Amino acid sequence: MNDKKIQALLSDLHLANHDIHALVTALRHAVHQAAAGAGEEVKYGGLLFSVATPFCGIFAYAAHVSLEFSRGCDLDDPHGVLEGNGKLRRHIKLLSVDDIGRKHVREHVRQAFEKAGGGT
Q1: How would you label 77-88 residue by residue, b for 16+ Cβ within 10 Å and e otherwise?
Q2: Helix, strand, or coil here: 41?
Q3: pLDDT the model gives residue 119
Q4: How far apart are CA 51 and CA 106, in angstroms?
């Protein structure tokens, strides 16, 4: 984990948009809870989480935050919250901190983490 780069990204988000920063911070905390021990780095303009391979990333936009899953096509989605129809990737679009619970983020992160080799 490159703490300086992560802190610089979070600081930039805080300066740019307090609501998006709060959402990214809460989402980052949820990912760490669901995927204890996962690596974290700044990559592709966001926060990328990995074990043996990358499994998800947090990317901030002007009006929302996207939680991207590298192999989202392999995740069970009983609540129908995953978006995207590409060959592999899926994402969850978050507009508020409340969406983290409403959209079952921890459940999806836990699945992705385990499928990537974490938690074993």
Answers
A1: beeebbebeeee
A2: strand
A3: 76
A4: 16
